[in-house]
Design goal:
alpha/beta; about 900 residues; binds magnesium ion; binds phosphoenolpyruvate; 8-stranded parallel sheet
Length: about 900
């Protein structure tokens, strides 16, 4: 049996790996192999695969048996190619040991440079380069990097040792005045010798052993340091924040060192083949003469721009431009490259697809199609959901200085964007501030339908409880309003009018800033950056619409929102939550409350009669905006207790308004209490108990449709029953809907087509979908409730524990929050079989999805594969859904 290959060599114009092997070799390893094959100037080396990283962790940090032999063989090959030997006291080979996962995680993992230097070999390097200062400087850097990354010694201790010598010896030798800076390059040979001695002393004190003088020991220490850094707290957090899932681990690249710090014909730089900020086709980057790579990254000295580099060293710049052209032609995308110039010769140390700002992503993709570099399909595949979010939502300016100090707490990133304003603990207060043109941030333990006025008035919303499909998140998403939920540790005291965390207390009226993109809350008013859509966005989205085959609708309850959604490309309404309309003003709230408090059918009908003209008007507004587009209107869904006041004051006020006793109100509210309201008296169960509500709503929908049709509007109403559990329940209600609708149509003396369908949001409905589809004309999967009920996880309480289920270091059960990105394996199974079963009895059944997953890129791709007719997303996420639909289509082909 042939042995598994764990190490891939590159050098001398050839490589065992190539650019397609990112999963196995990491982005850096694959890039180095590919550049070597393309005959670009790359120092030789080898890559230890990401598979080894995974085995290392699976096997309690023990390497696979054959690894040692493979590394030794590859090291030998490297020595042959370079003509140098590791640890050679006369002419030592020095190597860098660097991380590199399949997806770039800048600065999150470790790098060790100048490995192979020992007390003996440093002198060999000094003689060989005729530059002892250079050799000593390389050695002190190596001791510091090795000590801190491989052996976990606090890096600042090494920095202190260096600073002390600079301050004590260099400053007085050079006579530098106090207050002026002594630079790293001012430290001379003798002083560097002292620094090295001090650092070695520090190493011995901390580790209880001498600094290793065996380069092989150094090499294994460095390899382990890189693998260990894969699971460092910062790397784990980065993967979580960036939602990087399914990456097996990091690779380790061992590569011959080249030196940018050999004087003024040497240097090091980082550049991008195009401007990553604007997307313009202009060479962009930084260069530092006489420096090593870490100096650029660490920002120790201020680098020069490339045009200055071009003037200072035209020969090296020319070599760089040649590589730039080769790279873009080869990779057909903007590349981010690290390079070193050693005594006039250019070496490429890394190249990868460069990160870019959202607007730049659109510009580059469109430009590259125009330049004939890529196809439209390739351009569409390059855009990420975060690129779309980035051009629609304002963002925190991450460049401001006080960010770290201002940080308060982190919650769940429910709706992206950023907002700053004064804390308001009640919806009324937020409305009051907004009326005075002041900026408000609504801070609540949770929100309820009663708060919608204040939520709308506020710039942003912060809640202590709830997950990504909680009331606050769903409503805020509909408006594209920045929202953070599940900030469990924030203690909110409404009575005192304050909230606190970690010893910091904020009062109502104090400024805070929310970063909904990351879920971070800051104290004070931070600087924000406005969002703008670049020209290229429009062109790219045209291609998206040409490519996609499924429809994209929107979840909208008001004509204004529906209009925004149409502007963003929506082709219909997939979900109009009628209950949201009950809260638009006092009159409506009172009427719905009167209906709920009433204890007789007559009493309810009286109250409903007040709501009828209001709802009719609302629906007319929506039909008008959606002229010619399908409009799915869902009958009332939430449990009734959500509509009534729970505090004494509110109940008293309601009793007065309705002219009834306080105790009647109180008793009715108590009656409505349920232990599990989300599994209680809600959805179509309300219409089974109170058919008069259904009658009023259907009358309003069909009357509005007839009226608007009479005015020349093309209306396509689709009445949707929520929370259905089977065909028996559905047919009871469907018959009622049709009876009411037909009566209205007959009375109006018109002809009007309408559909009656159902949400599929209980597992039972999904399992019995074939029977339901015999009667239902369409399905819309409510994946919020379907997720809640399939997992048995409350969508409102999940924030208390669900993050642990996503956290790789804790449970790692899910790769993403299942309320945000569909649990394709579990809930997805019900969706797929629900569609199949439904279509088995009604072949042309129209199927859509209107849960929050309709605006999530990966989930939408799944829905496309599952054969849905449309997806429905909140207005600001419609472009993401369009993009996902196009990407799914391209992937299918
Ligand atoms: C759902 O459950 O997915 C849905 C769309 O309904 P709601 O979020 O209103 O419960
Ligand atoms: Mg639902």
């Amino acid at each position: 049996m042939s042995e598994k290959k764990y190490v891939y060599f590159f050098g001398n114009g050839d490589a065992e790996g190539n650019g397609t092997m990112k999963e196995l070799l990491g982005g850096k390893g694959a890039g180095l192999a590919e550049m070597t094959r393309a005959k670009m100037p790359v120092p030789a080396g080898f890559t230890i695969t990401t598979e080894v990283c995974q085995l290392y962790y699976d096997n309690k940090k023990v390497y696979p048996e054959s690894l040692k032999k493979s590394v030794e063989e590859n090291l030998k090959r490297l020595e042959e190619v370079t003509g140098k030997k590791l640890g050679d006291p006369d002419d030592p080979l020095l190597v860098s040991v660097r991380s590199g996962a399949a997806v770039s995680m800048p600065g999150m993992m470790e790098t060790i440079l100048n490995l192979g230097l020992t007390d003996k070999s440093v002198e060999g390097l000094a003689r060989k380069t005729s530059n002892r200062r250079f050799a000593l400087d390389a050695y002190r850097r190596f001791i510091m990097m090795y000590g801190s990354t491989a052996m976990d010694i606090d890096r600042s201790k090494f920095d202190d040792a260096f600073d002390q010598i600079k301050e004590k010896m260099t400053r007085s030798r050079l006579g530098v005045a106090d207050g002026s800076k002594v630079g790293d390059t001012d430290v001379n040979e003798e002083e560097l010798e002292v620094v090295i001695a001090k650092q070695k002393e520090l190493y011995k004190k901390e580790i209880k052993e001498d600094f290793p003088q065996d380069p092989i020991e150094q090499l294994w220490g460095a390899i382990s340091a890189v693998f260990n850094s894969w699971m460092s707290a910062k790397a784990v957090t980065y993967r979580k924040v960036e939602n990087l899932v399914g990456i097996s681990g990091t690779a380790v690249n061992v590569m011959q060192m080249v030196f940018g710090n050999k004087g003024n014909t040497s240097g090091t730089g980082v550049c991008f083949t195009r401007d990553p900020n604007s997307g313009e086709n202009a060479f962009y980057g930084d260069y530092l003469f006489n420096a090593q790579g870490e100096d650029v990254v660490a920002g120790i000295r201020t680098p020069m721009k490339l045009d200055e580099f071009a003037k200072e060293d035209p020969n090296a710049y020319k070599q760089l431009c040649e590589v730039r052209a080769l790279l873009e032609k080869h990779y057909k995308d903007m590349q981010d490259m690290e390079f070193t110039v050693e005594e006039g010769t250019l070496y490429m140390l890394q190249c990868r697809t460069g990160k870019r700002l959202p607007a730049a992503a659109f510009r580059m993709a469109v430009d590259m199609v125009d330049e004939g570099l890529i196809t439209k399909e390739e351009a569409v595949m390059r855009i990420k959901a975060s690129d779309i979010e980035g051009i629609f939502y304002p963002a925190i300016d991450y460049k401001q200085d006080n960010l770290k100090e201002a940080f308060l707490i982190n919650g769940i990133d429910a709706v992206p964007g950023a907002a700053a304003g004064k804390i308001c603990f009640s919806a009324a207060k937020a409305e009051e501030l907004a009326a005075k043109k002041e900026k408000a941030i609504l801070v609540r333990k949770e929100t309820s339908p009663e708060d919608v006025g204040g939520m709308h008035a506020a710039q942003g919303i912060l809640t202590a409880t709830g997950g990504k499909t909680s009331h606050a998140a769903v409503v805020a998403r509909g408006w594209g309003k920045c929202c953070i939920v599940g900030c469990e540790k924030l203690v909110i005291d409404y009575e005192k009018g304050e909230c606190s965390y970690n010893g910091i207390t904020l009062k109502e009226g104090d400024y805070i800033t929310l970063d909904g993109t990351r879920g971070d809350v800051y104290v004070g008013e931070l600087r924000l950056m406005e969002a703008k859509q670049p020209e290229a966005y429009k062109r790219l989205m045209q291609w998206v619409d040409e490519i996609r085959t499924i429809q994209v609708r929107t979840n909208a309850d008001r004509p204004e929102d529906a209009k925004i959604a149409i502007d963003h490309g929506a082709e219909g309404i997939g979900l109009c939550r009628t209950e949201h309309m009950f809260f638009n003003d006092e009159k409506r709230i009172l009427a719905i409350r009167e209906m709920i408090i009433a204890d007789t059918v007559e009493g309810r009908k009286k109250a409903l009669a007040k709501l009828l003209p209001i709802q009719t008007k609302d629906f007319e507004g929506i039909f008008k905006v959606m002229d010619g587009k399908g409009v799915t209107i869902r009958l009332i869904d939430p449990p009734l207790h959500e509509f009534v006041p729970h505090d004494k004051e509110g109940q008293q006020k309601l009793a007065e308004s309705l002219n009834i006793g306080f105790s009647s109100v109180k008793e009715r509210v108590e009656q409505l209490h349920e232990a599990n309201p989300m599994l209680g008296h809600r959805g179509c169960r309300l219409a089974i108990t109170y058919p008069e509500i259904l009658e009023m709503q259907v009358t309003a929908i069909i009357t509005a449709a007839c009226n608007m049709q009479g005015k020349g509007v093309t209306v396509l109403p689709e009445i949707m029953i929520p929370l259905t559990i089977d065909h028996k329940e559905f047919t009871v209600l469907e018959k009622k809907v049709r009876a009411v609708a037909n009566a209205v149509i007959e009375k109006a003396g018109v002809s009007l087509n309408y559909l009656v369908g159902t949400m599929i949001e209980t597992p039972r409905a999904a399992l019995l979908a074939d029977k339901i589809a015999e009667h239902a004309e369409f399905f819309s999967f409510g994946t919020n409730d379907l997720t809640q009920m399939t997992l048995g996880v409350s969508r409102d309480d999940a924030s208390k524990f669900l993050p642990d289920y996503v956290d790789e270091q804790k449970a790692g059960v899910f790769t993403a929050d299942p309320f945000q990105s569909l649990d394709q394996e579990g809930v997805g199974l019900l969706v797929k079989s629900g569609i199949e079963k439904g279509r088995s009895s009604r072949a042309n059944l129209k199927v859509g999805i209107c849960g929050e997953h309709g605006g999530d890129l990966e989930s939408v791709k799944f829905f496309c594969r599952a054969g849905m007719t449309y997806v429905s997303a909140s207005p600001y996420r419609v472009p993401i859904a369009r993009l996902a639909a196009a990407q799914a289509e391209i992937m299918k082909k």
